[in-house]
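Dear Dr. H.,

I hope your travels went smoothly. While you were away I took the liberty of generating a structure for the chain from your last submission, since the lab meeting agenda had it listed for discussion. I wanted you to have the full record in hand beforehand rather than looking at slides cold. The sequence, exactly as received, is reproduced here:
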Amino acid sequence: MRRLRLIINDTHVASLTDQNGIWALEYTNKWIESPTSYDLCPDLSRSAGKIMDGSSVRPVQWFFDNLLPEEQSRDLLAADAKIDKADAFSLLSHYGAESAGAITLLNSLEVIPEGGMQPLPDEALSERIRNLPRVSLATGAPKRMSLAGAQHKLPVVVKDGTLYEPVGSQPSTHILKPNHENVDHFDNSVANEWFVMTLARRAKLNVPAVHMRRVPDPVYLIERFDRTTEGDQIQRLHVLDACQLLTLDRHYKYELATMETLNRVIEFCRRKGDARIQLFKWLVFNILVGNNDSHLKNLSFYVTPNGYELAPHYDLLCTAIYSRSEDDPTPWLNADMTWKVENMNTFGDVTRERVLYMGTCVGLTTRIAGKLIDEIVSLTIAAASDLLVYTQKESLAGEHRLLRRIVHGVIRDMGARLVA
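The corresponding predicted structure, in token form, is as follows:
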């Protein structure tokens, strides 16, 4: 039997085991009896004591597999560790010291060294970026770390404007991403994500602080919303993505992105009325900026003893701009949407009436939904024009061309459809 200890901020919460491919989770008595404890997710209840997976329904394995990266990022981490990429338990054992949220996974006798920070010079980071995608971005880091998602990323500490890598028990404060490895197709993704996330903040969506810097390669930095500072100490906060909240295998993150699923998510939230409004604003903003990568793993929730609360939004960028066609001046309109409703499958199918219908699907009146649409469109378009002027001085030529196409192409077209 393979076994890992699950730690949250120095507290032993549970044991995770794998016996012949069947995973199980058993909470510690200390955690069960603590007045400030909580279930890791709805289907991993403390009252059950020990939860064991079945042959087809695997809530334990699905929950923890959702902590690991996907696609090529997982391939690289597995290759670096000389582990079969299908062996999720071994990957968690190797990379569990730093992950999304509060969870740390340790082997039975493993002790995390005292926390510290190691400087990450621009030259060293630039060399790692140049080695992508052959070598993981975390290769050479002093700490074995894992983050969910398909894109290459690195947990870092930012202090007084300087980049560091966390050592031992030191939590990271930011997540760093370089440009997408496929620069011929997904060009200037750093500028794209920084621009759209900045627009989201100006459109009054709840998003973390983001920054763009050059090392000299452009990198995107987002402040971790699953961290909080108490005095001089950085504490980890337990968060779930929507797949974990609903006990879904990560492979369903697109397939089950439906209004029915969104309503299931809302029912888990402590403040349901606020969740309806914030999630509808998120849907409208993603339509406006042409983001069709807004899947279930790109929604997260804080876990507290009092219930679940929607966390800040992240991974907002214009993906539809990467739809290409030599004969079509507006190829983004042919891009598939993530959240589909009747007769609205591509961005070209979007009408105000259909988006108003999305609002009613999550429990809003058409009057409130219409007001929210108008507010998002108005704030975003005004902010996009101002921000585009600002970036003209700061961005490279290719970055600015992409941003102009986003503003004068995608946002202009989608904004006209949303207010018509």
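Two observations you may find useful: The first helix runs from residue 29 to 33. The CA atoms of residues 26 and 73 lie 30 Å apart.

With kind regards,
E. W.
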